[in-house]
Amino acid sequence: MRFIITKNIIENIVSSMQPFLEKKDASAITSHIYLEVNNDKLIMKATDYEIGLQSQIDELNESVNGKATVNGSNLLGILKRLKDLEIIVETNDNNLIIKQNKSTFKLPMYDPEEYPTLPKPDNINKLDMSMLNLINSIRKITPAIDNNNPKFELNGALVDIKSDKINFVATDTRRLAVSHLQNISNEQNQFIIPKKAIIEIQKLFLDDANIAYDDTNLIISNDKMTFFTKLINGKFPDYDRIIPNSLKYNFSLPKDMLIESIKLVTSLFSNIKITFSSNSIIFESLDEDSESKTQLDIDLNIENTFYLAVNAKYLLDFLSLTNNEKVTIGFNESNLPFYLEDEKFFTIVMPIVLEK
């Protein structure tokens, strides 16, 4: 195998493949990137079996067909040190050789025939949705996806395809985040995408792509790239039970003022108490060792004063992902879960229970 390519073209792809490589065991073949030159095209693959990426490069200046593997981390380390000029990549015995001007690097290879193949499902379901809508929907719920929860299904986002809409759902047990789109033609179904895959999808795909899934995998592809992830095998909690049927109080509030007030009182401590009265909202820190307090004068037209206590991070996560100048906050009583909404996106937050 041999090819000549501009350094920054291959470096960008090798860099994007780093999250897909086995990091703990450098002796595993999945710590390597697979390279194949075929008819002046370079195909590159990286996978740790759970998640994978294949990319195609057409900008080869000269090539000889062949296959190779190379440790992905070591390859990136070399490419970063080279100049943004052409490089020569070729195989010699069981080594991959990289040359630029008078510099030469030699890295050991594994047998490319043993490299794992990316899945090609038979009974594939096409998800009829634009890539932009998918990314916008999962971006809003990403902060609410849990990390390392013993209940594996909570370490991912649920895609719940209903007859009339598609819900994207995540919860870390302290909050529930849901964004939704109208369902035009997709059949009813559910599947759970791991958090790592959710994050990588948002990095990789900016233009439109084909989205498909089966019982085991989600596959997203365009002309240059194919991404896959194994889906989480589990049953997501019945989130509909958590969504309140009605709300006693419902306000539309200016987003920027909320953000400014919350940040003012959370410089030292993240837990806050927000008190609502007929003509003001008072924000105060729950830190016992210091005092932070600010007031927002606003006419709410309510008779009784009530409050909510909460980790401010949950509020700021929601507010940072909203599109409009105003957001809706809904409550029933102090010390009960409360509701935040902006168009097709809402979050339900569990409060910090305070003694009345």
Automatic annotation (TrEMBL):
This is Beta sliding clamp. Residues 241-344 form the DNA polymerase III beta sliding clamp C-terminal domain. Keywords: Cytoplasm, DNA replication, DNA-binding, DNA-directed DNA polymerase, Nucleotidyltransferase, Transferase. The keyword Transferase applies. InterPro entries: DNA_clamp_sf, DNA_polIII_beta, DNA_polIII_beta_C, DNA_polIII_beta_cen, DNA_polIII_beta_N. Residues 133-238 form the DNA polymerase III beta sliding clamp central domain. Belongs to the beta sliding clamp family. GO terms for biological process: DNA strand elongation involved in DNA replication. Residues 1-119 form the DNA polymerase III beta sliding clamp N-terminal domain. One of its GO terms (cellular component) is cytoplasm. Signal peptide: none annotated. GO terms for molecular function: 3'-5' exonuclease activity; DNA binding; DNA-directed DNA polymerase activity. It is found in: Cytoplasm. It comes from Malaciobacter halophilus. It holds the Pfam family DNA_pol3_beta_3.
